Amino acid sequence: MIFALDIGTRSVVGIILKETDGQYQVEDIVIKEHEERAMLDGQIHDVLAVSNVILDIKKTLEERHGPLTRVCVAAAGRSLKTEKGRANISIKGKPLLTHEDVTYLELAAVQQAQMTLAEQSSNEKSHHYYCVGYSVTRYEIDGEEIGNLIDQQGDEASVEVIATFLPKLVVESLLAALQRAHLEMEALTLEPIAALNVLIPPTMRRLNVALVDIGAGTSDIAITDLGTVIAYGMVPMAGDEITEALSDAYLLDFPLAERAKRDLHLKETITITDILGFETEVPREQMIATISGAIDRLADAISKEILRLNNHQSPKAVMLVGGGSLTPELPKRLAQKLHLPENRVAIRGIDAIQKLHINQEEMKHRPELVTPIGIAIAAKQTPIQYVTVHVNGQTIRLFDMKQLTIGDALLAAGIQLHKLYGKPGLACVVTLNGQTITIPGTHGEPPTILKNGELATFDTPIKNHDEIVIEKGKDGQQATIQLRDLLESLPVKHVTINEQQYTIEPIVLRNGEHVSLDTVLCDRDDIVVHMPETIEQLLQATKNDYLLKQLKPFTITLNGKTITFPEWCGTMYRNGIECQRYTTFEDGDHIVVHEQKQRTIAQIAEAKQIKLHYSIPIIFNGETFTLTKLIGTFYRNGELLEEDDLVHHEDELEFNEQKIEPFIFQDIFQYVQVDIPHGASTTFTLLKNGEPTTFYEPLAPGDRLEIIWHEKKQL
Hints:
The protein is α+β, with helices and mostly antiparallel strands. It folds into 4 domains: about 10-380, ATPase, nucleotide binding domain (Nucleotidyltransferase, domain 5, 2-Layer Sandwich), CATH 3.30.420; about 390-480, Ubiquitin-like (UB roll), CATH 3.10.20; about 480-595, no CATH class; about 610-645 and about 650-710, no CATH class. It is built from 15 helices and 46 strands. The strands form 12 sheets. A 5-stranded mixed β-sheet has the order 14-13-12-17-18, with helices on both faces. The N and C termini lie far apart (about 190 Å).
């Protein structure tokens, strides 16, 4: 004998079912309406009033069938809440993902969905909801979707889930009402699951079918496809919408309007009495036309919700159960709005339930009895029970809708899963040649989970009275790395400079100081690794940078002004080919630098067209001479320089220019030696161009000079 209760918004249905070898027999049914609005949208608001109705049904059935102490009940499907969740985990540098890692990630996503659900009601907490199931919608590695995370590697793994929850308040208020009626909950199921189990067995769930349970206050919807239930939904409109339309149209008290609504299904002419006491007979078709707008609104709301739940597509068929499904023309209008043939939307009574025998013929086509009978059968076949476990000493009661695991217990206990894994060790952030490099610390360890003293995992099954202890995993260690591990291999080059061999290695600096490759790096270290690239950098690294000066144009400073001689510079050759200081070099190159030649004062003066001398040609006694006079002098550091003195690159010189004085006759004696002819007197005559002149007579280029000696006078 199975005693089941369907506690609805308007009424409570009690049913006695007898099972024999897998066949079910309806023994008795008692229906009693609530005297007050004790229920609202499937949720018990007045526990005392609901318990009184349950007690009345219990007493009635006990008089016929004996004592009843245990009952099967259902939680309203409209109480189910569905939420999406997502969780990410860094797997950079971590070994391959294990089944345990993936389970942890899925549970973390479920918990995130649980917290999102709780945030929608400020007075709720996440563990005030039972998770009654979840399904993974997407796995990702580094943002790319992937079929399975196990044995995968990358930088970040993530998972998206859709989780279904039932508020604990729904179950607790149901338990309280039963206890007041001196009943113990034998098993619990969900109303949509109950109706689905008896009308759409698993073999039919590969079909895309919508089941709509139209009650008094709400219409519950469940969608099947691909072998499972893919969605639950609820519309806050049902049979009361039609009742209220009749009440408004014909001025009827609500109970009389409810009776008139039921007569629409049975009679062609409905007799009604309005609140003024006038009795009227209304043809069925006329009454349906009067409430046509309300029927349309109900059909529209249900069809829109079906389309929303079914990814905006019409299902293959729609099954209607519940008292509200008897609303006139509702199946026809639903078919129109869902663009389905009329024979694809049908009201199903308990005669559609397999392995069920009904003695009373009039009951067979009553759709309002499908859910109560489904509760009785489903609660017996797939009962949902409570399991009590202890998590770190805290007593937790779980809603046993599936094979429960340690992960479910942790969710119910409100333990934040993301805090169970050890924190990763602090990273070490360094800069290498201006580029920031992060060296991660070691990963935190997973938590240690014990069930009854033995090691367990998140997906280890649990049973009643299990003792679960979970300890946070150890934190990871701070990152440590040697400089050689960061740099890997360093290049080495061998070159020859002016016949001397050199080995070139990179220069490694840490925070500006030379360090060895064994140095352990610290956070925020600035590493500079420099390998000479050009010949100029090569000469600097080998301390041959003095050769660079030879490659520059010859330069002096003259009277404070810099003067450059581009044509006077050294030359450089790489493997016999002339090159420049910015030319790159390779391993095995031969570099030859030819130094600048030193220059003389005379060469400097000639290059800058500076005249150091003033010269004129003259003829003396028939022989040609060139008279030269110094008209400019160079000094270096105050020292007078001669014309053949060497000048160095970047010397600072001074040049003093003298005023040009004309040559005079006596200047010739610096170039010739005059001897007095034998027999001549000491007297003479000076001639310039044949004319007598003096020692101080200015000379011009080409002048002819003579000295005429007089003979001695004879005594």
